[in-house]
Amino acid sequence: MRTFVLSVLILALLAAPALADDTELGDGRWFTLYSSENRVLLRTGIRIHVGDRFLDSDNCLYQVYKIDEVRLQAWARQVEDEGTWAAVGTQGLPGADNKKIAVYHTHSGESYLPSDGVDSTDQSQGGVYKVGAELSKRIEKYDEIEVTHCQETFFPYSGSYRRSRTAAASLVGAGELDAIFDLHRDAAPQEEYYQEIEDMQLTQVMIVVGAQNPIYQTNEEFAWQLKEVADSMYPHLVKGIFYARGDYNQDLHPRALLLEIGAHTNSRQQAEIGSRAFADVIYATLYGSLPEDSDTEKEIKDDPQLQPTADPPPGSRGGVLKGLLTLAGMLVLGGGFYLFISVGSWQGVKETLSRFFRVEFRDVISSIPWHKLHPRYILDQLRAIKIGAGAPPVLKLLQEWWHKLFSPKNRL
Questions:
Q1: 162 vs 78, 169, 214, 248, 256, CA distance in Å?
Q2: For the chain, which ranges sit under pLDDT 70?
Q3: CA-to-CA dists, residue 148 to 99, 135, 151, 279, angstroms
Q4: What is the model's pLDDT at position 22?
Q5: Computed from CA positions of residues 157, 261, 239, 179, in that sequence, does the dihedral angle turn out positive or negative?
Q6: Within its chain, how far is the Cα of 48 from the centroid?
Q7: Residue 92 in 3-state DSSP?
Q8: Which residues of 335-368 are buried (b: 16+ CB within 10 A; e: fewer)?
């Protein structure tokens, strides 16, 4: 019996990464989670199941009770939180004294469309690596913290959690880590993650806890502690905590969490700012209050590229012009294709267009009263305007001045 139970546990652990792969849509679509009153609670690329839970930014806990798989919609009702979490003191968390943190990226190709030009790639490191680099550099500024930012990629998307598990296990086994984070970006509309905090334009961070992890309650406690500190330092920086079906390799460490920093529709620059702010939260949670000389808000305000008035990233410039040119191109191609179907040959299309410009277009152009567009004609029409006897004296003075200025003898 003992051998049977042990075998089941081993199979469950081996299957957990595969389950994690199945819990995310991964194709740019997203689920919309509603409250029982049909108020939008969350939009996320994580696949939502009945029984999943979501703690929103106001610390209201919801549990999913209804799913519409076709429309990618779900409904949740508010429930009571039954957990009890140790408060984070000014000295940080007990046992977090190794000053070592690791960051990796299971979905290696995830990117930010406005800045990176693509929302995902399967050939090279995506934009999330640059966001991870910003988070790592920010943490390393403080008190000799060592951050290992894993540069491995885990393509293709399918089965990526199984491959990243090996890297995560190596990171955990290489030394006593205080925490390890799998950094992603979500799939959602731009406004879902965009936030302005103290004049900083950034993206929010959503913490994901794998509810099928055998030790998920220890990860859950760490997630709540991070949110508690974030709420006091940068209110609404943390979008919430989502309890997803799957393991997400979080059984490898009691402080292993998945972070969704922004969505594919946000700019990477704003995600980088969000990661810097969350780096402060990580440090303050694990190790206590930030050093007195740290000021993320001041650093961002002093950097003109990160201010709210900064130019949009290159990927978002010229969007209207590109759209108009694309529309014009589609109309031309569509019109040509329609003519081809109508006349049956490209020679017929050529003859039809030639006849149009020789006859119909010429008739339209010739019917335009071009003489009325001449400046002299327009001036004569303006001079011919009569002002009634009861008009204010100033209008009569203006008319006299106009007539003198544009009288025939003054024309060149």
A1: 34, 11, 17, 9, 16
A2: 1-22, 83-84, 89, 293-326, 339-340, 343, 358-364, 370-372, 379, 381-391, 402-412
A3: 11, 11, 9, 14
A4: 63
A5: positive
A6: 19
A7: strand
A8: eeeebeeeeeeeeebeeeeeeeeeeeeeeeeeee
| Residue 361 C-alpha from the chain's centroid | 48
Closest CA to 171 of 145, 155, 152, 144: 152
Cβ atoms within 10 Å of 206's Cβ, excluding its own: 26
Contact 187, 264 (CB under 8 A): yes
- In this predicted structure, what is the pLDDT of residue 304? 44
pLDDT of res. 382? 66
Structure tokens at 46: 């994580």
Q: What is the DSSP string of 173-212?
A: HHS--SEEEEEEEE-S-HHHHEEEETTEEEE-EEEEEETT
CA gap 197, 274 in Å, rounded: 10
CB 45 within 8 A of CB 188: yes
Phi first, then psi, for residue 179 (nearest 5°) are: -170, 160
Residue type, 247: D
Give residue 406's pLDDT.
61
Element (H, E) at 17: helix 2-22
What string of DSSP letters covers 27-53? Answer: SS--EEEEETTS-EEEEESBPP-TT-E
- The third-level CATH classification (topology) of the domain covering 31-316 is Aminopeptidase (3.40.630)
What does the pLDDT read at residue 291?
78
Extents of the domains making up the chain: 31-316, 319-368, 371-410
At 55 the pLDDT is: 97
Kindly list the strands in the beta sheet with 179-186, ordered across the sheet, starting from the edge strand earlier in the chain: 40-44, 31-35, 73-79, 61-68, 53-56, 238-244, 205-210, 256-263, 179-186, 100-104, 146-149
Contact 111, 118 (CB under 8 A): yes
Give the relative orientation of helices 268-287 and 128-140 as an angle to the nearest 10 degrees: 40
Assign 355 to helix, strand or coil. Answer: helix
